[in-house]
Amino acid sequence: MNRNKASVRRALSGACQCAVLLATMFVAASPLFAQMPSITGVTIAYGSTNTITIIGTNFEPKNTPQPTVVLDTTTLAVTSFSNTKIVATTTTQFAAGSYLLTVTNCLKNAETFDVTWGADGPQGPAGTPGAKGATGAAGTPGATGPAGTPGAKGATGAAGPAGTPGATGAQGVAGTPGTPGATGAAGTPGTPGATGVAGPAGATGPAGTPGATGTAGTPGATGSAGPAGATGAAGTPGTT
Known about the structure:
This protein is of the alpha+beta class. Among the domains are: 2-31; 37-117, Immunoglobulins (Immunoglobulin-like, Sandwich). It contains two helices and eight strands, in the order H-H-E-E-E-E-E-E-E-E. The chain has helices at residues 2-29, 31-34, and strands spanning 38-45, 50-57, 68-71, 74-75, 77-81, 85-90, 97-104, 110-117. The strands form two sheets. Strands 1-2-6-5 form a four-stranded antiparallel β-sheet, with no helix packed on it. A four-stranded antiparallel β-sheet has the order 4-3-7-8, with no helix packed on it. The longest helix is centred in the first third of the chain and has 28 residues, at 2-29. It is rod-shaped, with a radius of gyration of 71 Å.
């Protein structure tokens, strides 16, 4: 049961919030709201007939009927008006002080403005300073401005005393060996040394392999015939 009541209350609360939001949007969008008068300044010319000039906007957006001007409870006579300026007069001589001025335009929209009547008196003594208010929340940082023009270079200061030498650091890792250099040019040949003593004769080496048989030479020329030999003895006669 309690849960149901809580749900109903939440629903009613949400409905009320929606109604307020819609009403605010309706009023803000209304042409009457858009034409509310606004007073930005008031000047007074004092005399037997006092002239009050009012400056602002939306004093008479439709130009008719003319706006009404009331100072305190006295209605002023409007002598001229436009949407941004009203001139009104009164023969009433108000005592010096501050009064509420009310301007109502033709749409029945009104605006008020505090008016000081009479000359301002001398400034009073300063009041006791009030208690310091709470520090407000930090504002959003602004955009970074452009860099300024560099200033002129200052004079070089005197050299400071030499500092105490620091401890020697550990030896670093050996670097990668460099590329070998080009071979240098050959030096000038030295003077030849003296001829050494002849060494002992070596042992006789083994006989070499016999060479191949050479080609047969050309036959020589036939010699001349020798002298005839002696006649031999007669042979034995044959049998008959």
